[in-house]
Amino acid sequence: MPSAIATVVLCFLGFASPVFALDLRELIRQVETQYHGSSAQARVSMEVATDNWRRTLEMESWSLGREHFLTRILEPPKEKGVATLKVRKEVWNYLPKVDRVIKIPPSMMGGSWMGSHITNDDLVKGSQVDEDYTFALLEETATSWRIECLPKPEAAVVWGKLVYEIEKVRKLPVRVDYYDEALQPVREIVFDEVREIGGRVLPSRMTVRPLDKPAERTLMRYHDIRFDLALTEDFFSLRTLKAR
Amino acid sequence: MSLIQLNNVGKIYPLGSQQVIALADIDLEIGAGEFTVFAGPSGSGKTTLLNLIGCLDRPTSGSIRIDGRETGGRTAREMADFRLHHIGFIFQSYNLVPVLTAAENAEFTLMLQKIPKAARRRRVEELFAALGLAGLEDRRPNDLSGGQQQRVAIARAMAADPRVILADEPTANLDSQTSEELLRLMRRLNEEQGTTFIFSSHDPQVIHLARRVIRLKDGRLESDHRQSPKTAA
Amino acid sequence: MLPRLAFRNLWRNSRRTLLTLSAMVASSALLILALGVFSGMFADMLASATEQYHGHLVLSRPGYQDDRDMFAHFADDPDLADQLRRRPGVRGASPRLRAFGLVAHGNTTRPAELLGIDPERESQVTSFSRQLIAGHYPQKSEADAALIGAGLAKRLGVRPGDELVFLTQAADGSLGNDLLTVSGIFETGAGNRDNALVLVQLSWLQRLTVLPGKIHELALTIDEPMAAAELAASLKPVLPDGLALRTWGQLLPEMQEVIASYDVSRLILVTILYAATGLGILNTIFMSVLERTREFGILMALGMKPGEVRSLVLLETLVLAVISLILGVAAGIAMTLYMQRVGFDLSPYLSAVTYAGGTLPPRLTAVLDGQNLLVPAAALLLVALAAGYFPARRAARLKPVEALRED
Known about the structure:
The complex is a heterotrimer of chains A (244), B (233) and C (407). Chain B has 233 residues and is an alpha/beta fold.
């Protein structure tokens, strides 16, 4: 890959290559949208282990582009029917037990989503990393790139830095490290068990670990994904959210 | 032995860069029971001499003995204590304490000597009777005539039985009749009780009644003569 | 005779003395009133800080009060609560469970703190039942009742009788959610409570959070809040293992600092007010000494010693101080008592102020406290004697001969 080598050389010389910067952004965008496609339907199980409890949720989810996302819990029975709808920057939860919809207020976007180590903010902002950050190639090995993402000054993001490790051949994420505003590592996400799902080769398992609680983790398994369905924006509505 | 002995006493006041010689080479003896006046014009040094004898001030040179005891060279506190126990003062303009009654003024030195109240009262009663002040005990000085005030001042000076009473121009503020009465009163006390009086005055009336007249001029003794006294009326 | 002389000397220039005296009386009386009002504000703040939420002593797992970890719970043992309540000095004990989550009504959702309580026992510790602006305090029988802060109620647009949804993470990881009915709305004046706190039944919250029979804290109210630390120490032997008492001072360190700074503020106030008074006294005594130079000469000639002259002048100052002290303290007590009984309503001009975890209601009241009489009285004596010292020294150093020459 001669252009990459040239860019590394240029970076050493103190020049930034705008052409290559775009390439990095595109790479990140691809990684962040790997489970979405233009639209998608997925069966996912989420295993959450904390210091105090451990549980597994079975979920079904739908997405359209990056702005629309809907998920509904299938198991366990106690939470069956609990659903989350995300449209652009807003998130709603549907609670079947009381048959009410709760909109997550902006101040609670940092809160846990469904008790996992994923926040509501991850649902909203995670998919637009390519827009909120600037990118630089930290390291290139024979098999992977490590890309450092620093937030743009005006971006309203919660992280101080992200470092993506991306496998070169299949352009799949290996891991992402999250740093707080003091640039201390606080969370990691590891991707593995790459296999073919829905006609694409993807990591089928994603493990989120908070670094301050080493025994805790959230593990997402993608069992089945169908890409490019005929979903419209109308589908991602409060009415669909409430439908059982 | 004389009651008061002055040997070669001098007093010099600094005045700016100069020195004013108030008294020089005073040698003097005054015996117990005398009735003496220091006479002379103002500035002659008679008040200064009285102040030195009264232990209100220290001589620049020489020595002053009262009852054989050196008076100079003491602290302010010791000098005050000496005055309290040995010397009575009568001032020119009575100088009673206006907020105290006649009796309280009279017993002031007894109070300073910490003499019990009953004894003080007895002494004041006795003095007021002798001085013709009976019945005026509770008057304030402002409610007394000039002569009455000066008699209270005499009572105050005599209360503690001092060895000597010093009176600086005691008649200066009194009319001649009152002066006369007062002087005769003091003469009587002198004769009956043997109290030693020393005056400073240029009042002929006072000089006339004195038994010894010491004249001062420019801080020096000019003359010292005894005269046969007119008896107290 | 010296005291009598001193007393009479004071009235030689009675107008000047009266002016100085009235300044001394006024400054000490106003100082006592000001300190009383100060103490009143302080008592209001302390009461609001403790009776509005924490209580005076809180029993919980060590560390719970710092991180509010929902798993730092303990069994709600009625014997323990009874035992603590029966201890001398303890007035009440209220078991509480706490949960943080989202409370929603219609399209509005707000983050909220839910405090699960036994309404009857909670009213022994906190004053929510007396701070209702709408509805009623929950009854034991109203299982889904919620007492909600005024600010939160306004933001959610709810009134008594309205429904609330509460959503939180339960102890088993599940999404605890259920409906509540607003029974009443309280207003404490403290923004952080009024805007975020909801009181619910302890049993309701235990079920929702899947913490049956558990509580996070036992809040105690005691007779002598200022002696909370001593009482906490005396209770320590009867506490079960793994539980610790925190005092209101530890829970509200800012309030503790307010108390510490109170003594400093009091001294500053005393200093400022008395500096002016002291100069007035100094002036009066100095004038009176200067005017009497000749008289001091006479007294010294008669045999009064310098020390006695100094004492006389100091005695005059002391008499002045004692008279103004008696009048000033009497007037100060009278004004403080009047303020205590009648008070002064500031609500047309001010709203409640929250500071250091306590809330100052918009009213002026006063508290009569021995310290607030002692400090101004002692300080007035000291100031008077200090102001009298220089004139006294001057008088004592007079030379009789020179003083006699004065007119």
